[in-house]
Design goal:
The structure holds 2 protein chains of 2 kinds.
Chain A lengths: L14 E12 L2 E13 L4 E5 L6 H8 L7 E6 L4 H6 L3 E4 L11 H11 L4 H14 L15 H12 L6 E5 L7 H18 L2 E6 L2 H7 L2 E6 L4 E7 L8 H19 L1
Chain B lengths: L2 H27 L10 H10 L1 H35 L1 H16 L2 H12 L3 H24 L4 H9 L4 H37 L6 H10 L3 H29 L10
Helix pairs in contact in B: 2-10, 3-4, 3-6, 3-8, 3-10, 4-6, 5-6, 6-8, 8-9, 8-10, 9-10
Classes of the chains: A alpha/beta, B mainly alpha.
């Protein structure tokens, strides 16, 4: 019998994307959202996907998450199709909107993936307590989303994404809507959660600073059609400093501008 | 009790007081005969004297209305579940739902009595028919109102259709369902009374007919007062339930 998703030891999975293309059929004809995207991620790697709006970042994430079938190319998550990985519940998702269910308390929201996967109640309770502690939400467990700040809501959403110890974590601008101070604090928090989980992380962002501060590698996308124009490693020791990041940020910006031209 | 809550009780009561005192003074001063307009005091004393008549009749009408509300809402929710899931079902059923709404209930009620006899059953069916449409419209909209990101999240967790329905779509629909039920409550009381008028068993509708035929205006007014109180009570119950269940909804913040 396969291991229950909630019992799985969390080890990041490899990810491979070859010649990925996505075309949306719209009323005004086909729209190329992504063209010939090729990259890979090593197990446990933190990859930031950076680009201006309309470069297909979110489309890419939805394909990797098995929510959207690709039009061309091949994608494998842990050696399988993203759809298979999704059915095995190996993918954790967090979005720009926290997407917490407003009628559920923080603890009940974090419990959602465990409920859906049919985890035994005692095991689920234990995991929820773990996640609340991990995300620093212990004192907020019984509160409802509308009683929390935006940053706290995003923390709960991240804890929920980690509930089933997914080998792959897909984050669609989860820090996007927050104010700058909260963003910085939650960014550090995110690195800590990633290190504790060992998962492979793909973080979509449009902030150069955020990408350089958090990721092992920055994938730069250009718009119309969306394509990968650069893959820049961030060879900085952790914890990182603003000074060290500056030179890499400059290279990332140069790649962005070259892609836009 | 807060000042605003106090105001919500005191202001309507004051208006009722002014109207009742004026009414009483007018009937007495102008010697209006009781078979045209009875004095409030006459209505009240009739109500208290014959409470063991008005209360059971009122409960019969209320029973028909509540039974219809439950049946109509449950049917509407079932239809809405199918309609919000499959566009083709919505396209096929919505015209018939609209037809059920625009057909005057007073024209259909006698048919129900012919089919189901002089029993409470046609009363429940008539009330269900009028409650159906507003709840259906609310439910169809509501079941589609779940946050798209929450829907994606559940899909990413390989949740089944049933899990998505129970954990996301149904709770998201609650505010819309309550809006529909609030429209349906007064309608199903009307439905219950109309069904009684055309012979669907006893109740305040019949009490009004009997009082009308014998020009017993105090009894007629008393029946109307009881109907109004039943309607208010039922609406109060719905509002109370809404506040309990929708504590998480923005509409209940700051209240």
């Amino acid at each position: 019998m396969a291991l229950l998703a909630s019992q799985r030891a969390s080890i990041g999975c490899p990810l491979d994307v070859r010649g990925l293309g996505v075309v949306y059929e719209t009323r005004d004809g086909p729209l190329v959202a992504l063209q010939d995207a090729t990259f890979s991620a090593a197990p446990g790697e933190f990859v930031a996907i950076l680009g201006p709006s309309g470069c297909g970042k979110s489309t890419l994430l939805r394909v990797l998450g098995g929510l959207l079938p690709p039009t061309a190319g091949a994608v494998t998550v842990a050696g399988d199709s993203p759809g298979e990985a999704r059915r095995r519940r190996e993918i954790g998702f967090a979005f720009q909107s926290p997407a917490l269910l407003p009628w559920r308390s923080v603890a009940a929201n974090i419990a959602l993936p465990l409920e859906v996967s049919g985890a035994p109640p005692d095991q689920a309770r234990e995991r929820i307590a773990e996640l609340l502690a991990l995300a620093g939400l212990g004192d907020y467990a019984r509160l409802y989303p509308h009683q929390l700040s935006g940053g706290m809501q995003q923390r709960a959403a991240l804890a929920r994404a980690l509930a089933l110890r997914p080998p792959l974590l897909l984050l669609d601008e989860p820090l996007g809507p927050l104010d700058e101070l909260t963003r910085e604090a939650l960014g550090l928090e995110l690195v800590r959660l990633w290190q504790a989980s060992g998962a492979t992380v793909l973080l979509v962002t449009h902030s150069v600073q955020e990408a350089v501060a958090l990721a092992d590698r920055v994938l730069v996308l250009a718009p119309r059609p969306g394509r990968v124009v650069a893959s820049l490693p961030v060879a900085l020791p952790r914890p990182r400093t603003v000074e060290g990041a500056a030179s890499i940020a400059a290279r990332v910006r140069a790649a962005l501008q070259a892609g836009a031209a | 009790m807060r000042r605003s809550q106090l105001l919500a009780v005191v202001a309507p009561a004051a208006i009722a007081g002014v109207i009742l005192v004026g009414w009483e003074a007018w009937v007495r001063g102008a010697s209006v005969p009781a078979y045209i307009v009875p004095a409030p005091s006459a209505i009240a004393s009739r109500l208290f004297a014959d409470w063991d008549y008005f209360l059971p009749e009122g409960l019969r009408t209320l029973g028909g209305a509540l039974g219809g509300l439950a049946l109509g809402s449950a049917t509407a929710l079932l239809f809405a579940a199918a309609m919000s899931r499959w566009r083709v079902v919505e396209a096929g059923l919505m015209p018939w739902a609209v037809a059920s709404k625009v057909t005057p209930i007073i024209a259909v009620a006698p048919l129900f009595v012919i089919w189901f006899g002089f029993t409470p059953l046609p009363k429940v069916l008539v009330a269900a028919l009028v409650a159906f449409f507003p709840v259906l419209v609310g439910a169809v909209t509501g079941l589609r109102s779940g946050e798209p990101a929450a829907h994606e999240l559940l899909r990413s967790l390989a949740a089944s259709e049933l899990q998505i329905f129970l954990k996301l779509r149904l709770p998201s629909a609650l505010p819309f369902l309550f809006a529909g039920v609030k429209v349906a409550v007064p309608l199903c009381i009307v439905g219950s009374v109309v069904a009684e008028w055309v012979g669907a068993g006893r109740g305040l509708g019949q009490a009004i007919l009997v009082a009308n035929n014998s020009l017993d205006m105090p009894a007629l007014f008393a029946a109307v007062v009881v109907l109004a109180l039943l309607g208010l009570g039922l609406m109060g119950l719905v509002y109370w339930l809404e506040r309990r269940l929708l504590f998480w909804h923005p509409s209940s913040f700051g209240g």
